Amino acid sequence: MQNFLIGLGIGVVLAIVLVVVMSVNRHKEMLQEKKETDRLRRMLNDRMDLESDGLAKLKNDYVELKKQNENLRISLNTYSQKPNRKEIARLHVYQLAVDRLTINSPGFGAAWQAALKESEEEFQKTYVGVQPFIKRLIPMKTDANVLPRYVETDEKQ
Predict the structure, then answer these.
(1) Rg (CA), the chain
(2) Alpha-carbon torsion, ordered 72, 75, 81, 85, to 10 deg
(3) Whole-number Å distance between alpha carbons of 135 and 137
C-alpha cells in the first residue's frame, strides 16, 4: 500500500506540475493573443480614422466643386447674356459654315465673294448720307417672314 501511495503522490505531483506548466503556457498564449488583438484594433482604428478623414475631405471637396460648378454656370449664363455675345457666337457659326461651303462647293467661292463685296458696299453706305438717316426714322421691313408659319388647327372638330 505504501508503494501505491508513493506512486499516487508522484502522479499527483506530476499532474500538478503539468497543470501549472500548461496554465502558464496558456496564460502566455492569451497575453500574445491580447497583444495581437490590441495591435489589430489599433491598426483598424487608425485605418478607420484615415478613411474617415479622407471621406470627410472628399465630401468637402465635392461640396466645394459643386459650389464652383454652380458659380461657373451662373457666370457663363451671365457672360452669354452680355450684349453681342450671342451675335458673336452666331457669327463664328456662320463663318465656319461659309468656310466649309467654300471648300466643299467649287462654284460657291466666287459667288460668295461677289455677294460679300456687294453687301459690304451696301453696309458702308448705311453709315454715310441720307440713307442711314432715313433708316433710323423709318424702320425697314425685313424678309423675316420668308419661312412658312405653322398654323394652329382645332382638332376638336
Answers:
(1) 47
(2) -80
(3) 5
Length in residues, the chain? 157
CA distance 22 to 30: 12
Q: Scanning the structure block, which residue is given the C-alpha cell 463685296?
A: 117
How many CA within 13 A on the CB side of residue 41? 6
Using an 8 Å Cβ cutoff, are 54 and 46 in contact? no
Please identify which residue in the block is written with the cell numbers 426714322.
137
73-114 pLDDT tens trace: 888 888 777 767 677 777 778 888 877 777 777 777 777 777
Selected residue with higher pLDDT from 59 and 148: 59
DSSP state of 126: T
Task: Give the separation between CA 138 and CA 131, rounded to whole angstroms.
Answer: 10
